[in-house]
Design goal:
Number of domains: 2
CATH class of the largest domain: Alpha Beta
Structural class: alpha+beta
CATH superfamily of the largest domain: Transposase Inhibitor Protein From Tn5, Chain A, domain 1
Helix content: 25-40%
Strand order of the largest sheet: 3-2-1-4-5-10-9-8-6-7
Number of helices: 7
Radius of gyration: 21 Å
């Protein structure tokens, strides 16, 4: 399973550190830690990440392989060591000044490994101030990009590293669904942390319910289309499972036709599944079973 970690805000009033599970281009909220904004944190940030990972551990079976993905704010050994302690793999983006020790004991900033238009893969040690950690670096600088993408991981498979980090966008989509494109979380103005905690829990439950509805809608689309790939992107590929679920609810409200609800989220094999848009275009399937 791919677990994505990131933090979002409710205006300047609240910060929400969240862990979510990749699900066909969207994300299932697993756990979170809420803090008031514009105030000194009652606990250190890395204490909160440890709490968050502990909560995720209580949800995911111990035998399930997990890759934790996070952006530059988490690209340091304080965080990656916490992930490693759970027996999980990790892929994080790092700052360009992060030091790396190459074979032959050559020490360089990671940023200097790659030039514009290049992709470089190196195995070595990173995080000098923490006493070095053995890592794989995948550094990519697209010709049109203003800066390189610098990924560090305890994995060795290059494809797995790039593939896992490519799924990080799903948590941004989750935050958008919770705010401007969905539940309008920022429209709530209560300063009560108890109330905000209840709102976040409600949004998480409602998100899972919509994904269940969206999964049923998607399975219906795939059954009608059949397994043949299409040369053109179908209409359904333009919508996420979250939006498909919302359409099912709106159709119910307008027509009275009860929407179908999937028996479970199709989590089996999600490590190999692409986004919903890719699945419907290529004539694939969402997967079967519940894990």
């Amino acid at each position: 399973m791919t677990v994505i970690i990131d933090e979002t805000t409710h205006t300047d009033q609240w910060t929400l550190l969240t862990a979510a599970l990749w699900y066909h281009g969207r994300a299932i909220p697993l756990a979170w830690v809420l803090h008031p904004g514009n105030t000194r944190r009652a606990t250190a940030f890395w204490t909160d990440t440890a709490t968050l990972l502990d909560r995720v551990r209580q949800i995911i079976p111990a035998t399930t392989p997990v890759i934790v993905v996070a952006d530059r704010a988490f690209g340091c050994p304080v965080f990656t060591d916490q992930v490693t302690a759970h027996g999980w793999s990790w892929v994080v983006r790092v700052q360009g000044h992060t030091r790396m020790l190459l074979r032959g004991h050559t020490e360089v900033p990671i940023r200097t490994l790659v030039g514009r238009g290049q992709r470089v893969v190196r195995r070595g040690q990173a995080f000098k101030k923490a006493g070095w950690r053995t890592v794989t670096v995948v550094a990519t600088w697209a010709a049109a990009a203003p800066e390189p993408l610098l990924l560090v991981s305890n994995l060795t498979a290059i494809g797995a590293i790039a593939h896992a980090y490519g799924r990080r966008y799903a948590i941004e989509a989750l935050f958008r669904d919770w705010k401007t494109a969905g539940w309008q979380w920022e429209a709530s103005h209560t300063r009560s942390q108890t109330t905000q905690e209840a709102l976040v829990l409600g949004m998480a439950i409602a998100t899972v319910l919509l994904l269940l509805l969206g999964t049923a809608e998607a399975q219906g689309v795939l059954a009608a289309r059949g397994p043949t790939p299409t040369p053109r992107r179908p209409w359904a590929a333009r919508e996420s499972l979250f939006r498909l679920g919302r359409y099912g609810v709106l159709r119910w409200l307008w027509t009275g036709a009860m929407p179908s609800v999937a028996e479970g989220l199709s989590l089996a094999g999600t490590a190999l599944h692409g986004p919903w848009a890719t699945t419907v275009t290529r004539g694939g399937r969402l997967g079967t079973g519940m894990t």
